[in-house]
Structures are given as structure tokens and as C-alpha cells.
């Protein structure tokens, strides 16, 4: 399968309808002739990943005219390996959001619903998902801090992969919450997604959080020694803590149908428990805004981006008027993050959240058969309860039309935060996870989660499932 190259007029029409790109390049036809592992493939890049030949806006007024002098490592790798970039894709401002509605360029709409007006795409990698769904590109890069690749992938009935934390370089990816940020890949085709992953899966000395070469070798060693590539039957855990009330029937039946297909294929389904999953949402919304506050402090009107022309640095009034250009949701996060880092709250909330995060990591780690190379705890493996993969839903709801949101849903931020309940635990634990469409063409996602570093196991499994569907 490959995306159809469009004329500029067709591109303009789709752009007007779905608001997919923040910047479109006209000369992609030339680029798609390149050779290399990604030769002939066209892609979109989320507009929080820097590119030297196109602006990088983060969907924010504050960076509306920002032009990076260099390419992010992932962009360099794509270009070097033959990928052609069609444009930069729309997003929730700085990656903050889950509906694709918080960009200064306006919301992105879901091409899965060509006849229905303005159904949300989900975010924050909304444009990256929409470009794939509309067949404008073969794949896109997004970023996933708490679910931003997986949620729009589910709403678009496509694949969305969030690799292990540190697997793919973040150099040149504008930070939201750096202990959670990852670059992810979206595609309709699992084979293409894997090719892109293979190109991007490299140690990068420019990224201090890049997974070290010796650990990559260690993981590969275990993968080979245990012959995981040849594995046919997997042990798949389903955590009881992911059971939620009020999940639409359509989603539940897609999930149960998928599980029964897996059982028919001979995979073993194992009930597991990870009690700390219930803490994931509050942990995430304590830690991520605190990190965001520190990352956003660089937009001060001096070093990057917008500067209020009326204000003067010598009058000491530059900062506030400049920062009024952040959108509403980003300002919410700045308030929340600063609060979380204030004296009492720092002790009572922030430190506590960090401790609870470690507990969640340990609990998630303990369910896997494969060792965690970061924790060096090989000895506790091989219990009969250990699993190869965990399975759960990606989203607890279906995408809605913009008109169908109640004012409470739009005004109270926590109503949006709750969307990420199934995606955050893996982000907090840094685990590789793929959202796949259990029923092609339906806006529903199921996640397949692997042990830290075992991204290949997740992708092997998905390729196998894809070939039986
Ligand atoms: N929806 C989550 C948030 O707003 C996750 C965003 C993301 O993964 N970038 O923070």
C-alpha cells in the first residue's frame, strides 16, 4: 500500500477540509524519487520536530515564525534514507492535549469521516494521523508524551507506535515533558512502520537520554538467545485495573472479538494485576506540567520566537506581554506546573508522584518474562505468571463531532485529561507500545505493550496479527 501523490489543487482541497498541515511543501514529487530503505515513501512531520527548510511552530503563536537552523536527528535520518517530507503537521500546542483542538491554526478534523462535519482527530499528533488517514503520506512522525501518537491513531483506525523511552533520538524535538517525550510513528501499513522504525532506531550522542549502545546490544542478545523472532504463541496479560465502566459497547465488542481471535490463534490470555495503574493519571498530571513549566520558560521574548513589539527589555516588562501568546491549555499547564513545584505542594505532590511513578514502573516490570536491562533484575523471571506482552484498549471513547461537546467538556480541562487513562501508564514506565486497529476502518485502538527495550517483540507480534486479519 502506498499513499497516492496528489496534485497541489487536491492537496489544497484536503487541507481546507481537514486542516492537516501547518506548512506544506510543493516539491515533494521530486523527493519521492529518492532511493534508500525509505525510497519512494512520503511522510509528514509533527510540527514540534525541527526542520531547517520549513518553519517549526509547535502550533503556538509564540513560535509562529520560528525557523530552526538545523534538522532534528530523526529528520536527518529520514532524508538520508530516502524519505520525502510533504509537510509539517498540525498539533495541540506544544503537544498538550488529546483532542487536536488546541492549535493556534485551529483544530484538525478526522478524514475517516468524509461525510460528517468536523469530527475530531484526537491529539496531540492530530495532523500526523490525519495525513495518514487521508492517504496523503505513507507514514508520519508524531510525538507521544502520554498518548499523543496512540490516541489519534485509534481514532483514525491506523497504527501508532510509541517506542521505548530513549530508543529514538529526541535531539531537535521541542521538549514538552522530557522524562516522558518520545518520537512515534504512524502508518496504515505495519511493514512501512517497521521500516521507518529500523531507520530511526539508533543511539544518538546528541541526546543525553538516548539508550546506550551497550544496552541495545544486551537487549538484542536476549532477543536472539531466546529466539523471540521465531516465537509463534505469545503469553498476553490483561490487567484488571484497565477495566473501566461506561465504555461504549462498540469498543468493548471490538476488544472481545480481537481477544477471541488471538485465543483461536493459540495465544494464551493471562489475567494480571498492576494496582498502581489507578495512580497513573494523577502522577502524569503532577510530573508533566512541572517539566513543561521549565521547558516553556525559554520562551521569554529574548531567545526564541515572538517578542511583544511594544515592550522593552530595559523596562522589565517583556516577559508577561510576550507570554500572553501562549494558548489557554498551555497557560493551564503553566499554572498547574508552577503550583506543583511550590514549597508545600512540591513535598506533598511532586515528590510523592515521583515515588508513585517508581512503584508503577516496578509493578509493570514485574509482569514481564523478559528482563528489564535498565533495572538489571534478571533473576526474578520465569515465573508461570510472567507474560510476553500486555494488551489493553487505547481509548475509552469514540471521536466526536466538534458540535457535540458540551460546554463542561470544553471548559473543564480534566474532562480532556481523562482521555489518556489507558495510554499514560506505559509512558510513565517508558515501555514500547503500539496502538493497532482491531477492526479496520473503525475508530478504535487496542494497545500491545512490551517490556522496556523489546520494541521488536511488539512489532513482530503486530506483523503476525496483521497477516491473519
Ligand atoms: N494528552 C496528554 C497531555 O495533554 C498527552 C499529550 C502527549 O502525549 N503529547 O499531556
UniProtKB/TrEMBL annotation:
It is found in: Mitochondrion. Residues 32-459 form the Amidase domain. The keyword Mitochondrion applies. It comes from the Eukaryota. It catalyses: L-glutamyl-tRNA(Gln) + L-glutamine + ATP + H2O = L-glutaminyl-tRNA(Gln) + L-glutamate + ADP + phosphate + H(+). Its main location: mitochondrion. Transmembrane segments: none annotated. Keywords: ATP-binding, Ligase, Mitochondrion, Nucleotide-binding, Protein biosynthesis. It is an enzyme of class 6 (ligase). Its EC number is 6.3.5.7. InterPro entries: Amidase, Amidase_dom, AS_sf, GatA. Coiled coil: none annotated. The active site is at residues 46, 124, 148. HAMAP family: GatA. Belongs to the amidase family. GatA subfamily. Allows the formation of correctly charged Gln-tRNA(Gln) through the transamidation of misacylated Glu-tRNA(Gln) in the mitochondria. The reaction takes place in the presence of glutamine and ATP through an activated gamma-phospho-Glu-tRNA(Gln). Subunit of the heterotrimeric GatFAB amidotransferase (AdT) complex, composed of A, B and F subunits. This is Glutamyl-tRNA(Gln) amidotransferase subunit A, mitochondrial. It comes from Nakaseomyces bracarensis. The lineage of its organism: Eukaryota, Fungi, Dikarya, Ascomycota, Saccharomycotina. The gene is HER2.
